[in-house]
Fold:
Amino acid sequence: MTADRRPQRGLGAGAGLKPEHYRDILEGRPGVDWFEVHAENYMGAGNGAGGPPHVFLERIRARYPLAVHGVGLSIGSADGLAPGHLARLAAVVARYQPLLVSEHLAWSTHAGVFLNDLLPLPYTDATLALVVRHVDQVQTALGRSILIENPSTYFRFETEQMTETAFLRELARRSGCGLLLDVNNVFVSAVNHGFDPLDYLADFPLESVGEIHLAGHAAIEMAGGEALLIDTHDRPVADPVWELFQALVARIGPRPTLIEWDAEIPTWPQLADEVERAARLLQEAREWTYRSSVLSHAVGEEGTRCAATGR
Structure:
């Protein structure tokens, strides 16, 4: 299946949708471009057609574009995808017709046991073939392309045969999926493994990026005094992550950008401030892209005139 990797027109800065903010959104109608939900929150037996989560989501979906983000598909599991979970994901997608659907490059199940974490994969040829098969299975079940998110990582495998960016590039090429670029994950992994996040972005298959995530992280002190960053989603986006995001969109232009805040949920005004900051940077990128396009067109026309007149 071939992915449509063009940025979604009209989708600027959005927020992860939380029950704590349902009434703020419905009563205040904030100027947020879109919302994203975790698919698993709308799959349970108690979340049927008349359940409160669906009642609120139906009302918000009527007013705002929606994206669906999966956190439990375990797309890298050696055991294969769980048919029941995939069917429930397909039902959520069919019901709400989101503009974007995404999942993590991770595994979280083994031998029928669900592990409440997003665990990393070794970047090998065998893992790549496995993930490509699973992505194709998901896209076939949904009847659409999906986005796969780069992970935050805390260790590396000795058996790795390629870099993360090379793995993601080949995954997109073989499966036709797009990519969700989580800038906080890039920064967290860069600090933990000691590489330059700008070098990572320079090698990332940016042509496949269909969505961007921004979130907060925490630092814990390890033995020896070294800091380990953890992707916690429980606080504001850190300044270095904002700087990376600004550099990214200046290069590739605006993409749908989400503020994730999944723990220690803030008040709606605090979350809205983060969304507004992302929106301002996207607008700056949009204006820069427009000016660059106009300048390039003007230079091209002048070159044509010079060629025609022999100057």
Notes: The two ends are 49 Å apart (CA to CA). The longest helix spans residues 268-309.
